[in-house]
Recover the amino acids of this structure.
């Protein structure tokens, strides 16, 4: 059996898997995450889902190299189509955009029966996931932020519960920025949002040069509102 190593961000994802879980890792790529979870006795069984042929074959190879064919089922399919309702109790999705993760959850909602925890690592636009949680009665119970190879990632953990529990009267800012992350204000968090603030400023400059229309006016107001929310949190 080969030693399975994970990146820092995937290690943080795995730490959120309760011991004894059955896990589906969607967009599993090389299946490193489920292999690590099985080898380290965190998960008892796993499904590695991949829609693209190359990563699907890579996942099969990793599972075979580690002799885990009896514990990990590598399946080819789109999103949650690779699992059946009640088959797993934890779903992990890492390394995609927040909007794509939301769409995967939305299109596969009927597959979430029996799932008790969602562990999601969006590369960008985590607010789409926070909004989806509220709309579908999932409670955001924890957030993490990690820096790896010069990039910053957020990890969101959800369970069934009160979807409004983590939010206050600053809900719009918390949806954008993260209610738990806002409270912690780690160095990595500050670095991320200082960078985002500069991005918003650049977008605003471009909009000011654009031809005036209802669309540009609305977009400018939206960017200014985001800048205010981020500025208030950082101050």
């Amino acid at each position: 059996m080969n030693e399975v190593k994970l990146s820092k961000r995937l290690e943080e994802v795995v730490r959120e898997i309760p011991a004894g879980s059955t896990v589906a890792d969607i967009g599993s790529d090389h299946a490193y995450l489920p292999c690590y979870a099985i080898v380290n006795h965190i998960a008892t069984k796993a499904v590695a889902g991949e829609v693209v042929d190359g990563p699907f074959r890579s996942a099969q190879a990793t599972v075979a190299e580690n002799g885990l064919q009896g514990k990990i089922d590598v399946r080819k399919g789109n999103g949650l189509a690779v699992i059946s309702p009640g088959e797993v109790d934890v779903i992990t999705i890492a390394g995609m955009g927040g909007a794509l993760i939301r769409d995967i959850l939305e299109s596969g909602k009927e597959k979430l029966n029996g799932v008790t925890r969602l562990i999601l690592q969006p590369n960008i636009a985590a607010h789409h996931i926070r909004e989806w949680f509220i709309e579908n009665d999932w409670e955001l119970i924890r957030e993490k932020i990690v820096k790896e190879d010069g990039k910053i990632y957020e990890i969101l953990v959800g369970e069934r519960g009160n979807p409004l529990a983590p939010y206050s009267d600053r809900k719009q800012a918390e949806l954008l920025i993260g209610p738990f992350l806002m409270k912690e204000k780690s160095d990595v968090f500050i670095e991320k949002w200082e960078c985002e603030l500069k991005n918003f400023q650049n977008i605003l400059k471009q909009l000011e040069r654009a031809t005036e229309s209802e669309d540009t006016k609305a977009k400018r107001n939206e960017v200014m509102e985001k800048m205010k929310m981020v500025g208030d949190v950082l101050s």
About this structure: The first helix runs from residue 8 to 14. The two ends are 51 Å apart (CA to CA). The chain has two domains: 8-166, 188-234.
